[in-house]
Design brief:
The protein is of the alpha/beta class. The chain contains 14 helices and 10 strands. Helix 3 packs antiparallel against helix 4.
Length: about 350
């Protein structure tokens, strides 16, 4: 069962960093979290960091520019209407141009550097610079104020996969080889203060399979080293959870191949599926059903073991159901509702 850390999880958190192994539905969960956070009437920014236009595909909208665009209205209640979800596809080149304009009024110079390919060259030989620019945009959006109030109630970052998240967030170390002092260093320090503040939490998306679970555990362990410097670990969001209608005794019997064939045959007859007798006088449909139930039971028991191991990591866990009829806005609303019910927003 999902575990809630307290009555309102992540109170005070304004920057939600979402990471996970590829194939676990990281972008989908980030989108659902943005909707959940906006459901209380606030304004939420959903940011993509990898340039795949996954958010545009998820919300069925045109490719996102480097500009904040409204992509959805969150589900609300009769008492509180849902807020707005905005989205942004961040890229290092546009972030650099914005940075030069914001601090030095040098937007034309940034465009010239882009045309000359210098930005790509610099971020290739010094990948830490790219991460500084991308995380810097998230930090700026988190801190931005209009008329004394934050423009966004929360920012959700669809961050790089778990294998890269530690380096991506460890801005202070990454930039140390680029600049000891000066504006780049100052910018990196500002970004790091946001990332390592109580306003930021890093969430992990996984499914109950061997490799994603192990990568999640490795990621949590790695970030715990950074947590000593103020980084806050968030939740483990278990995606694509499949329900089971079998009792514990039935699961155990099915896994060991001990289901009562006579009971299966009677059940099949009641459903109008009698089947036929095989060469040894066995009901072929009952045998096929028993084999399928055995595989299902083994999978469920393995998933329970994965869940137990994840719970031992000590972070709150949320269950997100498998959406079998394709992911669309209705599916995202369903996932957002599951997150709200479990205290994530």
């Amino acid at each position: 069962m999902p575990v809630r850390a307290r009555d309102t999880d992540w109170e005070g958190v304004r920057l939600h960093v979402v990471t996970g192994k590829g194939g676990t539905g990281k972008t989908t969960v980030a989108g659902a979290l943005a909707l959940a956070l906006a459901s209380s009437g606030g304004r939420v920014l959903l940011m993509e960091m990898e340039g795949r236009q996954g958010i545009a595909q998820l919300f069925d909208c045109p490719p996102l520019p480097y500009g904040e665009r409204k992509v959805a209205v969150a589900p609300g209640t009769s008492a509180v209407p849902g807020g707005d979800v905005y989205a942004l596809a961040a890229d290092a080149e546009s972030a650099l141009i914005e940075y030069l304009e914001m601090f030095y009024n040098l937007r034309p110079a940034g465009r010239t550097l882009t045309r000359l390919g210098i930005v790509d060259f610099a971020t290739t030989i010094a990948p830490g610079l790219r991460d500084v620019l991308l995380t810097g945009k998230a930090a700026e959006a988190t801190r931005r104020r209009v008329k004394g109030q934050h423009l966004y109630d929360a920012v959700v970052m669809d961050a790089p996969p778990t294998g890269r998240i530690s380096r991506f967030l460890n801005i202070a170390t990454e930039v140390s080889g680029l600049a000891k002092v000066g504006p780049i260093r100052g910018h990196a320090d500002t970004v790091q203060r946001v990332i390592r503040s109580p306003e930021t939490a890093v969430h992990f998306v996984t499914v109950l399979e061997d490799m994603p679970v192990q990568e999640t555990l490795d990621g949590i362990a790695e970030l715990r080293g950074l947590a000593k410097g103020g980084l806050q670990l968030g939740a483990v969001m278990i995606n694509m959870v499949r329900p089971t209608a079998l009792t514990d005794d039935q699961l155990a019997a099915a896994a060991r191949g001990g289901l009562d064939r006579d009971e299966l045959v009677l059940g099949l007859k009641a459903a109008g599926l009698e089947g036929s007798l095989g060469p040894e006088g066995r009901n072929d449909v009952a045998d096929a059903l028993a084999a399928e139930l055995g595989e299902h039971a083994t999978q469920v028991l393995n998933q329970r073991e994965h869940r137990r191991v994840l719970a031992e990591a000590g972070q709150p866990c949320y269950d997100l159901p498998l959406v079998t009829d394709g992911m669309d806005l209705a599916g995202l609303y369903r996932l957002a509702a599951a997150l709200r019910e479990q205290g994530a927003a």
